[in-house]
Amino acid sequence: MNARRFPSPARVRYKDAMRLSKRILKSTGGQRALAWLAAQYVRFVAATTRWRVDDAAVRRITDIGEPGILAFWHGRLLMMPIAWRGRPRPFHMMISEHRDGALIARTIAHMNLHTAGTDSRNGGLTALREMKRRMDDGGWVGITPDGPRGPRMRAKPGAIKLAQLSGRPIVPVSLSVSRRRVLRSWDRFLLAWPFGRGEIVFGEPIRVPRITDTETLEARRQALEDSLNALTETVDTRCGGIPIRPAAEMPDTAATDPAAQAGDPSDGGGRARA
User: Does domain 9-262 correspond to CATH entry 3.40.50?
Assistant: First the structure.
C-alpha cells in the first residue's frame, strides 16, 4: 500500500503567499499601492532612459490646437504616457470596468493623465461616444486598436469609426527601449528596464471622411494597422531588439462584436496566453 504523499512545507508556504498576494491585489488598498509603485517605476524609467523622439507628425496637429486620436498597440500601453510628456493638450485614456482596468486607471492618474470609464453593458459603443465628447471639449484620446482581447497588433474598426464620427485625425505612435523584457501575454506586453535607450515615433495622421463607403473604411483600418506595425518594427529595430510580430489574422466573428470593434484603449483586461 502506497504511503500518502503530503506537500512539502516550502510548497505550502508558497501557495499561502500566493493566496495572500492575490487577496491584497484584489483589495482597494492593495491596488492603490501597486498603482503608485507602477507610476513611480514608469517615471524612473522615463528619467533614466535616453530618448529619441520623432514627433513632427503630431506637432503639426497640436500646434494648431486640433484634438485627435492617439493609437498605439496594447503591448506598449504602460510606457505610453512618456510619449505625451510636455504636450499642451489634455489626454484621456479610456478604461474598462474590469479590475485590471481600475488598476491601470489609478496608475495613469498618478502620471497626471485623465481616464474615462466604459460601460460594460454597452461595450465599445459607449466608449466611442465618450471619446468623441472628450475631443469636443478640446482633449486628445488614447486607444489601443487591438485591445482589450486581441488578436495582437491587429486593428479593429473602432478607431476608424471614432475618426469618422468625430472628424478628428488618428495619429499612430509606437515606442521601444533597448533594455526590456517582453512578457508572454497575448499582447507581448513590453516591460522596460531603466538606463537604456528609447525610441518614440509618431506616424502620419490618418483621416476618415464622415460620409464614405465600406471599402474606404476597411482601407483606412488596414492603413492604421500597417502604420502601427511598421512603426513598431522601426522602434524595436533601432533599439536593437527583435521586432514583435502580429498574431494571426483577426477572425471574422470579431466584426459583429461592438465591444471588440471598439478596440478599447487601455482596459488591460484578459491577459490570456497567445
Answer: no
Q: How far apart are CA 125 and CA 172, in angstroms?
A: 22
| pLDDT tens-digit readout, 143-170 | 999 978 889 999 999 999 999 999 999 9
Every domain of the chain and the residues it spans: 9-262
- Picking from 234, 268, 14, 271, the residue whose alpha carbon sits closest to that of residue 117 is 268
Helix intervals (H) in 137-239:
158-166, 214-238
**Alpha carbons within 13 A on the beta-carbon side of 174:** 28
**pTM of this structure:** 0.81
The answer to whether residue 51 scores a pLDDT higher than 80 is yes
Residue 178 grid cell: 533597448
Cβ neighbours of residue 192 closer than 8 Å, sequence gap 6 or more: 45, 49, 78, 79, 177, 179, 180, 198
- Does residue 77 carry a pLDDT above 80? yes
